[in-house]
Amino acid sequence: MAIGIVLAGTLISIAYNLNQGNAITGNLVSCDAAKSIACSTEKTICCNGYKYCNICDRGYTLDPKDCETCIRAIGIINAYSDPSEADVYVDNVNKGKTPLVIGNVGVGRHTVKLEKAGYVESSKSIYVDAGEIITVNSNLVGVGIGSARIMTSPNGAAVYVDGDYKGLTTVLVENINPGRHSIRIEKEGYAEYNSVIYIEKDKETKLSITLEN
Fold first, then answer.
1. Domain map of the chain by residue range?
2. In 3-state terms, what secondary structure has residue 75?
3. CATH no. of 75-139
4. Which residues contact 150 (CB under 8 A, 6 or more apart)?
5. Architecture field, domain 146-210
6. Per residue in 112-142, pLDDT tens?
7. How far is the C-alpha of 133 from the C-alpha of 84, rounded, in Å?
8. Sheet of 171-176: strands edge to edge?
9. Which one, of 71, 180, 75, 177, lies nearest residue 136 by Cα?
10. Overall pTM > 0.85
11. Do 146-210 and 75-139 fall under one CATH topology?
């Protein structure tokens, strides 16, 4: 039987003809159907919702692109977080810090956990298929949240925090994660104001701005 080969990090896939004795007899059978299919190996595999004969060697699986090619049974996880530099754990094994690309992930279900000091742990269960790239993107929530009271002269200016509209001054913006956040203030007839504000947990940060013509 032909096998898949990896040379210098490049995956070489070898196609098998599923219509020569090993293959399904009759119409395709859905994965969840009770009906079986005829395979010389007596083993089946689910590919793109249908049953196929599992003719791949150990550590390989049918490519979901065509269900005819054996490829290494691995996938990739892309891990991102806001803020970045969070520790990434896959099945409780530390893989590094975000942003992070994790290769050679075995096919199946995995738990991806992100941890960063001062933030609530984020945990997700994902399923990785062969050749699939899974993206895990977590907006981490601070342990303890803060707020910002933003005042302008003149008042009635539009306030944006991290690009999101929060109201007209004077405005109290609540439930902000600790850390740095961008502030944009706009009022017709005045120059746009842009700055960065640092929010501390369990505290109200005050910002008073005099807008310029």
1. 1-72, 75-139, 146-210
2. strand
3. 2.60.40.1120
4. 159, 166, 169, 170, 171, 172, 173, 183, 185, 206, 207, 209
5. Sandwich (2.60)
6. 999 988 788 899 999 988 778 899 999 887 7
7. 20
8. 171-176, 146-153, 204-210
9. 75
10. no
11. yes
Place of tokens 């706009």: 186
CA separation (Å) from 28 to 167, 203, 206? 57, 62, 66
Express each pLDDT in 51-81 by its tens digit.
888 878 877 888 877 888 888 888 899 999 9
Exposed, middle or buried by CB within 10 Å (0-12, 13-18, 19+), for 128?
A: buried
Round the CA-based radius of gyration of the chain to a whole number and report it. 27
- Closest alpha carbon to 45 in 17, 74, 21, 24: 24
Q: Distance between CA atoms of 21 and 15, rounded to whole angstroms?
A: 15
Residue 52: is it exposed, middle or buried by C-beta count within 10 angstroms (0-12/13-18/19+)? buried
